[in-house]
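hey
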């Protein structure tokens, strides 16, 4: 998913090469492609629209340095906005117990494996005595078996 998103964003920003200043005209096509890439990556349409609006506002009128192309400048602005959107910095894990974490995502995105890795991390570093892994994927029974195998490997099975 991220590879496809990266490819589509790179393709969208290629047409900005050689432009001396980022303007509304030369950004419109690139931002439309970025919006399409975000929507195809299952980003909510309101989040995509707000993201594009913030990027457009940041890009318009930006003077491009001699050593930086407009495409590179737009990539930097998009990167900065993605960091803001996804969260910059770190967040501490709550000390309140029982701690509950729910993982959601598309099929095949790595939720089951991430759950096992997160449980191992919590057991070793965050002081959780014994994490419980609970499989709730009723549409893919193999995910339950996979989680059971991963939990058994880490001695999380009772």
């Amino acid at each position: 998913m991220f590879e496809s998103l990266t490819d589509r964003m790179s393709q969208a920003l290629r047409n900005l090469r050689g432009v001396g200043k980022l303007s509304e005209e030369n950004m419109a096509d690139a931002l439309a492609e970025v919006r399409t890439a975000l929507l195809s990556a299952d980003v909510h349409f309101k989040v995509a629209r707000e993201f594009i609006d913030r990027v457009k506002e940041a890009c318009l009128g930006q003077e491009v340095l001699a050593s930086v192309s407009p495409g590179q400048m737009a990539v930097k602005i998009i990167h900065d906005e993605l960091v803001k959107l996804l969260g910059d910095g770190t967040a501490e894990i709550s000390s309140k117990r029982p701690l509950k974490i729910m993982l959601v995502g598309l099929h095949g995105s790595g939720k089951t494996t991430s759950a096992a890795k997160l449980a191992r991390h919590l057991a070793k570093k965050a002081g959780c005595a014994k994490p419980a892994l609970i499989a709730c994927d009723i549409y893919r029974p193999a995910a339950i078996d996979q989680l059971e195998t991963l939990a058994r490997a880490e001695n999380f099975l009772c």
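The chain has two domains: 2-86, 92-158. Residues 2-86 form a domain with the Four Helix Bundle (Hemerythrin (Met), subunit A) fold (CATH 1.20.120.140).
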